Every structure is written in structure tokens, then in C-alpha cells.
Amino acid sequence: MIKLKLHTGILLFLLTLLTACGSDEPYSKGSDYRELPNFEKSNTPQVVLFFSASCPHCYKFDSVFEKWVEKKPEGVVVERIPVNFGHDSWTLLQKAYATLRTLNIQDEMSLKMFEAVQDKNYWLGDAKAVASWLAIHGYDVSTTEKAYSSEQAKELLKAYYAAEMRYNVRGIPRAIVNGKYEIKIKSLEGEDDTKRLQNLENIIDYLLAKDE
Q1: Which residues are in the DSBA-like thioredoxin domain (predicted)?
Q2: Lowest CB count within 10 Å: 29, 66, 164, 206, which one?
């Protein structure tokens, strides 16, 4: 009986070790990502990025994020949500981005919008300014002006505000996977963009596949 207890104890210890090894995950909740309380996991795989075209940190992140978007897994929805934090100038940039979204050119023009605002100091504060900027990239002026003033663009602005409030966004860039898992962007370090991109791809893939 004593031997049986000893063997059982050893077995339980080994099983504990195996369980610990099996639960060793590549990313850690708390340091690499956090699970948002009171949010349900989305039915559709998605990545949502809160940003502003005026934010230098967002610009730096988007230069890496855009490369992931170009080769993202099929079926994964990507949505960038501009925020304003109560700044009038950022609200105007929200309208400019809503125009891109209405025209369905947000992916190809997102990084160019950062460049226009932060590198070239373009003012994108009304329909004419946005249309003139997009004309440089080959888009029709009249079509852009209509999109800027469209009901769809207005509805997008309402949706952006609602999302900012719902997720209580206080800092950007902020990336949320499947509506529930927030990437700790500061953890995505690397000596160059290639390494940072690899880190970003890996953690997004991990969170997209994560079960609750």
C-alpha cells in the first residue's frame, strides 16, 4: 500500500509537469495581450485598429500593420476606426477617412493619408481638400466630393464615435482581435520593421485562432 501511494504521487507529479508544458503558450495574457472584460468574442474573425492620422505612433505602427493587411488570411475582416478624443482637427480627419471608407479605398490609401498629414502637412479639412488630395492619386474629384457628403460617410462617423465610447479608447494605436483580445503593442519590439512585422503576424494569428 505504501508503494502504491508513492507511485501515485509520482504519477500525479509527472502529470502536473506535462500539463504545465502543454499549457506553455507563445504569448502571455497580461504582457503580450489582454482579454477585454464584458466583451464577447466575435463570430467573424476580425482585427480592429483605433487610430488617428495625426498620431505619430499610429503612423509608425501602420507602416508595419499595412504589410500584414496586404497578405492577411482570407475571411479576416480588417477595420480601422479613427478617433478624435474631442479634438476638432481630428474630427475633420475622421471625415476624411470616412470618405476613403465610403469609396472602399481605405486599405490602399490609409498609409498615404498618414504621409499626407504628417510628412507633407496637407490639410484635409473639407470635401474640396480631400478631393484635391485624392485627385493626385488618380481619383475623380466629383466622386470624392459626393462620398465626403454622403449619408454613408455620416453613418460611419456615428459608428466611429460609438466604437470609441464602447471600447473606452484612451490611447492609440489600439489593436483588438476578434472583439475581445487587445494586443499590447509595446510588446511588439524588434530591431527592424521585418522583425516587428513577424511579431505582429504571429500574435495576430495566435489570437485569431484562440479559443475562449
Answers
A1: 46-198
A2: 29
All structural domains of the chain with their residue ranges: 29-208
CA atoms within 13 A on the CB side of 73: 14
pTM, rounded to two decimals: 0.84
**How far apart are alpha carbons 85 and 12 in whole angstroms?**
54
128-171 confidence digits (pLDDT tens): 999 999 999 999 999 999 999 999 999 999 999 999 999 999 99
CA distance readout (Å), 29 to 69, 111, 181: 24, 30, 9
The pLDDT tens digits of the residues spanning 17-35 come to: 444 344 467 788 888 899 9
Give the lowest-confidence range in 16-30, 60-74, 78-92, 120-134: 16-30
State residue 49 phi and psi, 5-degree precision. -120, 120
H-helix or E-strand spanning residue 197: helix 193-208
Closest CA to 81 of 147, 151, 149, 179: 179
Three cell numbers written together for 26: 507563445
Assigned superfamily of 29-208: Glutaredoxin (3.40.30.10)
What span, in angstroms and rounded, lies between the C-alpha atoms of 126 and 107?
Answer: 21
Phi-psi region of 162 (alpha: psi -120 to 50; beta: other; left: phi over 0): alpha
The neighbouring-strand residues paired with 47 are 78, 177
- Where helices occur in the chain by DSSP H, the ranges are 2-22, 56-70, 88-102, 106-114, 127-136, 141-148, 151-166, 193-208
Q: How many C-beta atoms surround the C-beta of residue 163 within 10 A? A: 17
